[in-house]
Amino acid sequence: MTSTPSTAMPTGQQSADFSDLTRSDESLRRFLHGLPGVDQVGAEARAAGLGTRSIKTTAKEFALDLAIRMVDLTTLEGQDTPGKVRALSSKAMHPDPADPSCPMTAAVCVYPDMVATAREVLGDSGVHVAAVATAFPSGRAALDIKLADTRDAVEAGADEIDMVIDRGAFLAGRYKHVHDEIVAVREACRRADGTSAHLKVIFETGELQTYDNVRRASWLAMMAGAHFIKTSTGKVQPAATLPVTLVMLEAVRDFREATGRMVGVKPAGGIRTAKDAIKYLVTVNEVAGPDWLDPDWFRFGASTLLNDLLMQRTKMKTGRYSGPDYFTLD
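== Deoxyribose-phosphate aldolase ==
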């Protein structure tokens, strides 16, 4: 059962050029409200069904390593210190120091004032530095403050920016306002040398209330140029859920069909076990397709998930579980 008909765009609007659609709130509203509605029961049933799939032996070993490579190892607390960020960055490069075959994580995600510290430790290791910006987690600030926040993080060495949308504006139907802020933040991600940090756009799906709104926010962010769409800040419950992620995966799949451009997906918050991570990987494969089974196109925003992945990985290799304090606590 699928949650919607396989329709990339409303009838009569199939075009990769969105310039006409983004000129006013009214044109955006007509487009976004013309997207196929999400069958809530169908979406939840399909997610539940995919969540029962199991994988064994070598496939599971592959999935555990892939999930580790997809982790954005995250610390976003007021009590974060340079020492904690250095330790987290070291762990991202060497998740299991006793096993050099263990892959690195995708990124370390921190507040903008900690970017330089993470960058110093990570260097050119290949682990990215991601920074939350734009008045995270509320998104309630003037645009010039959001842009300054973004530029500071990029100048300090951030490879990726995780921005939050103005949910109040979105829920009020001020779609052009949200679209234009995303466009402005993406422009602020540009470096002096002409390269650009990647932009992940956070919806805070727990505040969007309906799957239809999740689909609309997904299309709006992609039309504005997001490189990734992300469920949550991790500060609001519910955070990431499998049905919400399924709806977002359908959106990126349909967006590529309509435009030829791939956009990544990042569920964040509440994904704590290897079993849960594998459910998400199965859903990625079945809904969006195997092209998204890559850290360039799918990430987990997590702080506690990594240790369970490492425990399961050790069990697969040695036949026994390590104690819960065998790996460092983050």
